[in-house]
């Protein structure tokens, strides 16, 4: 049995929040894991089936302040991964959402997932966001599937539904090519995100009232959301206890949402970047009970 808890924090009070995702599964860990092809530090010399492996992690990254924003904010969040000794660790990309695996095999995995979306608030940019309604932080629970057509390629798809902040339907399709080299693991792959009209209007729409109050933009009603990009990561396993991952990503907002005045300067930018670092520390412990 494995348990994964990730907590997202570090945002300002208006646009921040905390997310705790608890993933429990049998036979494999739902997040922060490696595929069999990934390099793994030498095994611990002593193996006790009643012992747990615990990985504590800390991540810091720069992300757009809200979807379509031109400026950035730095967020940090801790994580914990608990699994029985000897259980394999699957690969998890730094931008994977929090997951709960209900089925796991050698080349297929499926379960539940949830994503957190930062909100857009007047206080983020009082000059340019004057007159626009706030787009609250959002949570998107849904389902995911992962397929490994070959050990070096991971395909992941998600379908999610907004339940707070927005009530649209969104999806993500991602692919990662994995290249292990000694203690290093290199990964790179494309990212595609889609959303319906409800999601697009929340973050990229401009109502007639908002346009009139702001005085510098025209009303706009996007019928969909679409973005495409790329994510790359490099992990170095210093020892059986310590590993370090650096990652960077780029995404461009396209289609109807990409033509919104809210992603034109000075209001926003269709080019969205992420950059981050994660540090993992692994140790062994006996259960308390």
Apparent shape: elongated
Helix share, percent = under 10%
Low-confidence residue ranges: 1-44
**Share of residues in strands:** over 45%
Structurally, the number of domains stands at 1
Largest sheet: 13 strands, antiparallel
- Put simply, the count of helices is 3
Structure characteristics:
disordered N terminus, 50% strand, single chain, Outer membrane phospholipase (ompla), Chain C, 289 residues
Question: How would you describe the overall organization of this protein?
Answer:
This protein has a single domain, classed as Outer membrane phospholipase (ompla), Chain C, CATH 2.40.230. Helices cover 7% and strands 50% of the residues. It contains three helices and 13 strands, in the order ββββββββββααββαβ. The chain has helices at residues 197-204, 208-214, 255-258; strands at residues 2-8, 19-25, 52-64, 72-84, 98-104, 108-117, 138-150, 153-161, 169-181, 184-195, 225-237, 242-254, 271-285. The longest helix is centred in the C-terminal third of the chain and has 8 residues, at 197-204. The two termini are 15 Å apart. The model is unreliable at 1-44 (pLDDT under 50).
How would you concisely characterize the structure shown here?
By secondary structure, the protein is mainly β. The protein is 7% helix and 50% strand.
């Amino acid at each position: 049995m494995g348990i994964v808890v990730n907590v997202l924090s570090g945002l300002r009070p208006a646009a921040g929040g905390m997310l705790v995702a608890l993933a429990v599964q049998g036979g494999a860990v739902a997040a922060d894991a490696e595929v069999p092809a990934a390099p793994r530090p030498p095994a611990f010399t002593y193996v006790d089936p009643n012992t747990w492996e615990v990985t504590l992690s800390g991540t810091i990254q720069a992300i757009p302040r809200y979807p379509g924003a031109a400026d950035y904010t730095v967020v940090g969040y801790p994580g914990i991964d608990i699994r029985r000794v000897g259980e394999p660790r699957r690969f998890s990309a730094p931008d994977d959402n929090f997951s709960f695996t209900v089925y796991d095999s050698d080349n297929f995995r499926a379960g539940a997932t949830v994503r957190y979306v930062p909100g857009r608030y007047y206080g983020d940019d009082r000059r340019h966001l004057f007159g626009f309604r706030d787009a609250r932080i959002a949570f998107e629970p849904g389902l995911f599937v992962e397929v490994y057509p070959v050990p070096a390629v991971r395909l992941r798809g998600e379908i999610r539904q907004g339940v707070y902040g927005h009530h649209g339907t969104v999806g993500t399709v991602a692919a990662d090519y994995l290249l292990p080299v000694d203690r290093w693991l290199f990964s790179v792959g494309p990212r595609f995100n889609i959303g319906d009209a409800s999601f697009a209007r929340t973050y990229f729409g401009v109502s007639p009232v908002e346009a009139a109050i702001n005085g510098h933009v025209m009303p706009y009603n996007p019928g969909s959301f679409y973005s495409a990009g790329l994510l790359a990561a490099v992990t170095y396993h210093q020892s059986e206890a310590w590993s370090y991952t650096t990652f960077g990503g780029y995404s461009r907002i396209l289609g109807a949402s990409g033509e919104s005045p809210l992603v034109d300067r000075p209001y926003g930018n269709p080019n969205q970047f992420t950059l981050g670092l994660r540090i993992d520390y692994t140790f062994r412990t006996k259960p308390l009970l």
